[in-house]
Amino acid sequence: MAKLMLSAFGHGGDYNPDQWLDYPEVLEQDVELMKKAHVNLVSVAIFAWSALEPEEGRYETAWLRKIIDRLYENGISVLLATPSGARPAWMSVKYPEVLRVDKDIRNHHGNRHNHCFSSPVYRQKVHSMNEMLAREFGAHPAVKGWHISNEYSGECRCEYCQQAFRQWLKKRYGTLEEINKRWWTAFWSKTFTDWDQIRSPEANGEMSLTPLKLAWRRFVSDQTLDFIKNEIEPIRRICPDKPVTINTMGFHYHFDYASFADVIDFFGYDSYPYWGSGDDVKTGLDTAFTYDFVRGFGPQNWSLMESVPSQVNWHDTCKLKRPGMHMLSSLQAVAHGSDTVMMFQWRKGRGGPEKFHGAVISHDSSGDTRVFRDVTAVGEALEKLKPALGSKVKSDVALIFDQQNRWALDVAEGPQKDKQYMQTLFEHYRGLKRLGINVDVVRSEADLSAYKLVAAPYLYMLLPGVADKLKDFVSAGGTLVLSYMSGLVDEDDLCFMGGFPGPLKELAGIINTETDALYPYDENGITLDNPPEGMKAGYKSGFMCALINPTTARTVGTYSSDFYKGTPALTVNKYGKGECWYLATRPEQSFLEDFYGMLAGRTNIQRISAALPEGVTVSRRENENTAFTFYMNFTGKPQKVAASGRDMLTGDEISGEYELPVNGILVTEAALGEIC
Ligand code: GLA
Ligand code: ZN
Whole-prediction pTM value? Predict the structure, then answer.
């Protein structure tokens, strides 16, 4: 895998000179202002296909060379984009197959991200374009890496895609007999006798065959990856030393990004939190949750690839960033492992739908604005943080989020229509982060051996090998948390026979016989007669209540009401050298904080900072010798934290109580041996 070689934290963003070719004075001013703002990295030519190939086969690259040369001469590096996120009109008109089909209707030319990911013509056009770009610019010293396309998303249902889907199914299942068996097609006479009978799930077609819906989700993800491989092929061949990245959308629904890790060298993420929308504490945690997830996509540090220095143009209400928030939100990404702070975009366009989207430079072309000063301050701060470049976030704790499990839960009908998987995981994440620790958010197939505590709530579908992995983890001394609706189905949505949680029965030491669903106005609770240290005697719960019979597990808490009052709601089972907890219901937030606090004590998890005020988060990066600790205040009020080390932004030595202002951030540096 090629590495992103940066000599400083990357600072910059999307730069679209192709929109300004008639304004040479603007292009010259850009570079001067970039230097003033401490910008050292820009993503260029993301949507520039029309400028690069104005008519079929005629490539125009002189303008781009001039821009890249000028950037280089001024010490600014480039992530060069491939332009496949949008295509010129001539292509759609001459080759309509490049456009997407939905509900049997082919889209007209327009918008962006409107391409078929199977179309041979589109694949060939993209391949030729990328080959040309790699030959022209691959060796340019300014080019540090390749920004492949832009925010891949969506799906297509044309005949090429239907055929590709059938091929994908053949590869996965081999025979129709196997599909019929694995998909339980005897139900409602769905038995397939010819491959051509299989189509994508769609509103006017098959929507009741849950494994088909799941297979389509997997296919869309895999087919997009296949499209990406085609994009990357000439780049890898011509300049194998330059890394490729894609700008992901984090918890985006369409892809299992973690499965892209063999193809993508480092991952970007585009972050647009709703700062100032009423609850920055929650927004801050939500953002941290996503960053901790994106960090796990690949082994290299991730990149904050887009963020906005002021306001977006597409929230219902587009708030300006409050003073301090640009610094706080930018360094929050660094705190969680990003090696860049990139923005969308460098300069606002004069026209088009994004002309009011925030940018470093507005229509006044001024480098003397509040936004410009905020951006410059981040550039300066990143220079002070340079010793932390390349350092890693290390965690004792992992929370399992699995995209395939999310899809499987969504296609399952019952016991709750709205599965609330993401909200549930967020509650667990929030409970864990309250402890003042780093948390990794990982897929179910991840290597768990380095963790002390793994939370795997709501793991409805067990992919092959996952049950064994969880058992090995606990046997070796790990602590695992499972919950209601765990271990119900295999990778094709077939229920495990012989009692739930299927292959996790012995590990959990319980059998889950039934699962009750609660209306939003229903309430149950967990009663703890002998609460473990740090826990209370009772907590509220709701949403779902699994009815369980312990086999080898010990009951720690029981239901507080309904006909199953007094039966187990929280159990723990010793397994090998470790233990497995089973949380049978969805508890109120304070339970998760107390529960994980109790488990952190039991498992000897070292806290970065104890007793943080709610809404102050902490994250730590480290290299061989040094710990870099980030304290972040999202509460809207000044807050006190206990910290020690050198304040990397001011150079002051800190010891003891430190007051974080509103939207404040403190970054300390201390020798690893000196931190407690
Ligand atoms: C996305 C896209 C950008 C731009 C921004 C606006 O992240 O990648 O091209 O449209 O949104 O917020
Ligand atoms: Zn298609």
Answer: 0.98
Is the C-beta atom of 310 inside 6 A of ligand 1? no
Residue 147, ligand 1, Cβ within 6 A? no
Ligand nearest to the CA of 270: 1
**CA dist., res. 278 & res. 271, Å (int):** 18
- Per-residue tokens: 279: 């609850």
Q: Is 674 a catalytic residue?
A: no
Which candidate, 299, 252, 294, places its Cα nearest to that of 269? 294
Could you tell me which residues come within 8 angstroms of residue 237 by beta carbon, excluding any fewer than 6 positions away?
A: 134
C-alpha of residue 154 to centroid of ligand 2, in Å: 11
Q: Is 102 helix (H, G, I), strand (E, B) or coil?
A: strand
Both tokens assigned to 120: 């041979």
What is the 136 CA–ligand 1 centroid distance (Å)?
Answer: 27
Three-class SS state of 396: coil
Pocket lining: 357 vs ligand 1, CB cutoff 6 Å: yes
The tens digit of pLDDT for each residue in 575-628 reads 999 999 999 999 999 999 999 999 999 999 999 987 899 999 999 999 999 999
| Whether the CB of 344 sits within 6 Å of ligand 1 | yes
Atom number of ligand 1 nearest to Cα 272 = 12
Domains, the chain = 10-159+209-388 (3.20.20.80), 397-602 (3.40.50.880), 616-674 (2.60.40.1180)
SS3 556: strand
